[in-house]
Specification:
It comes from Colwellia ponticola. 41% of the residues lie in helices and 14% in strands. With 365 residues, it is α/β, with parallel strands linked by helices. It has a single domain (3-364), classed as Ureohydrolase domain (Arginase, Chain A, 3-Layer(aba) Sandwich), CATH 3.40.800.10. A nine-stranded mixed sheet has the order 1-3-2-4-9-8-5-6-7, with helices on both faces. The radius of gyration is 19 Å and the shape is globular.
């Protein structure tokens, strides 16, 4: 690992769980996470920076938290996803082999640097890096993409498992991944689990957000139909509109229920067969899962996938294709849209952790 890249990591990222900038809020939970990862709660910054030097020899599966919900728009709170999901993974899956890179440093009012004027950029660089002329990005989407371009250039055999955050975070995660795979001469497909298509061109004038990120990675795919969406059920337009307009392929929840998982898997494979796909990236919005199991999220939806259905599809895909990148998005632990309270939070985290653990295990192979 070059010293330039190490300096970028140590400046643009922070210790796991610290992506949400707070002084006392969730302090105890952050300390529990640091105790589990580092064995102590003091001097965590230096311990984390020292751990970064182990990256070259570490697992192929690398965790990155992006605690940003500025690209959301219904209910906020997904910025707490990285902290809570990590804690659940460490408790329920202590045997996981994954290297934790830490969290992107998030200024919670920002989304992408392209939306900022020069004065704001200078002020934010001064706040984050004590240098208003710094070359580093300041917004979570911009930092993520910049760091990951360098990451894949230096570690082409490793993969990032991103924990969000709202689904806009998948834009830089998938864009950097797809561009890296293209440079490696590999054809990658994106498997996108979601209740929503996320195929708006823009939302209220903003082109990079939770409802539009998919649209803006299509040109980075070898073919647009290499974006396959699973679990769709909340849309103002029919399936034919999205497939004909954008060239993607979709499997709506109602059809999955009607035809069964076995036939759904066969249909997905028929779309991937003869496409010379080398690797898969799985982007998972927790609201793909039925609201009875996943209500701690900004837009829970009924009539969704059962957790075992999602796992069966993932196991089938992993048996045939290497999964080399993935993310888990939109877990908002403090959100209680369904009136289930802490029970709903625990259910959502349990399902999210099961899926995340499987994806991390596959990526580590």
């Amino acid at each position: 690992m070059t010293s330039t890249f190490y300096n970028k990591l140590s400046n643009c990222l922070c210790p796991p769980g610290n992506g949400v900038f707070t002084v006392n809020t969730a302090k105890e939970r952050k300390e529990q996470l640091h105790q589990a990862i580092f064995g102590q709660v003091v001097d965590v910054e230096n311990l984390w920076k020292a751990s970064l030097k182990q990256l070259p020899e570490a697992s192929k599966a690398v965790i990155l938290g992006v605690a940003s919900d500025c690209g959301g728009g219904i209910l906020r709170g997904a910025n707490w996803g990285p902290l809570f999901l990590r804690s659940t993974l460490l408790t329920k899956y202590p045997e996981l082999s994954a290297f934790d890179l830490g969290d992107v440093r998030v200024i919670p009012h920002l989304l992408s640097d392209k939306y900022l004027n020069e004065a704001t950029l200078a002020n934010c660089k001064k706040a984050l890096y004590q240098d208003e002329k710094s070359h580093y990005a300041v917004s979570p989407l911009s930092i993520t993409e910049d760091v990951l371009h360098d990451f894949y250039a230096q570690f082409p055999d490793k993969g990032i498992f991103g924990i969000g955050g709202d689904h806009s975070v998948s834009y830089p995660l998938t864009k950097a991944y797809l561009q890296a795979k293209k440079q490696q001469g590999k054809r990658a497909a994106i498997i996108h689990f979601d209740a929503h298509t996320d195929l708006l061109v823009e939302r209220l004038g903003i082109d990079l957000c939770f409802g539009s990120w998919c649209t803006h990675i299509l040109d980075d795919l070898a073919e647009k139909h290499h974006l396959i969406q699973i679990g769709i059920r909340s849309s103002g337009k029919p399936q034919s509109h999205w497939e004909n307009t954008f060239g993607v392929r979709q499997h709506w929840a109602k059809d999955i229920k009607a035809q069964g998982i076995t036939q759904t898997i066969a249909n997905i494979f028929s779309q991937l067969d003869h496409e010379n796909i080398d690797e898969l990236y799985v982007s998972f919005d927790i609201d793909a899962i039925d609201a009875s199991f996943a209500c701690a999220t900004g837009t829970p939806e009924p009539d969704g996938l059962m957790p075992e259905d999602a796992m069966e599809i993932l196991r089938a895909l992993a048996a045939k294709y290497p999964i080399t990148g993935a993310d888990m998005m939109e877990i908002a632990p403090f959100t209680d849209s369904c009136g289930q309270g802490l029970v709903g939070q625990e259910k959502t985290l349990t399902v999210g952790a099961e899926i995340s653990a499987f994806l991390l295990q596959e990526m580590a192979k």
